[in-house]
Write a structure and sequence with these properties.
The chain has two helices and nine strands. The chain is α+β, with helices and mostly antiparallel strands.
C-alpha cells in the first residue's frame, strides 16, 4: 500500500507562515474556521455546504504523525501551515465508514497546522480563504 503523503498547499492569495486557531463554527451553511496570523490579521477559511468530516486535535496528541512528518519531510515542514494529504488514511477511513457512498467524489484532505492544534477537513469543494486586518 502506498504511504500517505502531505503536499504543501499554496493558495492563490498571500498566506501567512504561521497561524493560531481561534474558533470553529459549523451550521447548515457549512464550516467556518478562524485563525489569527503573526501580524494579528484574521484568517478565515469557509467550506460552504461541502464538509464531509473534520477533526481538531491537540498537536501534543499526534506524536506518531508529527514524528513521521519530521522524519519524512524534515523540520521545515512545520514552517508552513497549509497542506493537502494524498493517499489519506482519513479519506480511506471516511470512505469505509460511509460504505463508499462518496467514492466517486474527488475528496480532498486539507490540513491546517498551528502551534497548538492540527485541523483536518475532508471536502469535495475547495474552501474560500479570507484574510483581513
Amino acid at each position: 500500500m502506498e504511504k500517505e503523503r502531505w503536499d504543501k498547499w499554496q493558495p492563490k492569495i498571500e498566506f501567512p507562515n504561521k497561524i493560531w486557531f481561534e474558533s470553529l463554527f459549523q451550521d447548515r451553511s457549512g464550516l467556518k474556521i478562524q485563525f489569527e496570523s503573526e501580524d494579528n490579521r484574521k484568517v478565515i477559511v469557509i467550506f460552504e455546504h461541502s464538509v464531509l468530516s473534520y477533526r481538531v486535535t491537540d498537536e501534543g496528541d499526534l506524536l506518531q504523525t508529527i514524528s513521521f512528518w519530521s522524519s519524512e519531510y524534515g523540520n521545515d515542514f512545520f514552517s508552513w501551515p497549509l497542506y493537502k494529504s494524498s493517499n489519506s488514511s482519513f479519506i480511506n477511513w471516511f470512505n469505509e465508514e460511509s460504505c463508499g457512498k462518496f467514492q466517486e467524489e474527488h475528496i480532498e484532505h486539507y490540513v491546517f497546522i498551528t502551534p497548538n492544534e492540527i485541523i483536518d477537513v475532508l471536502s469535495a469543494i475547495p474552501p474560500q480563504l479570507i484574510i483581513s486586518n
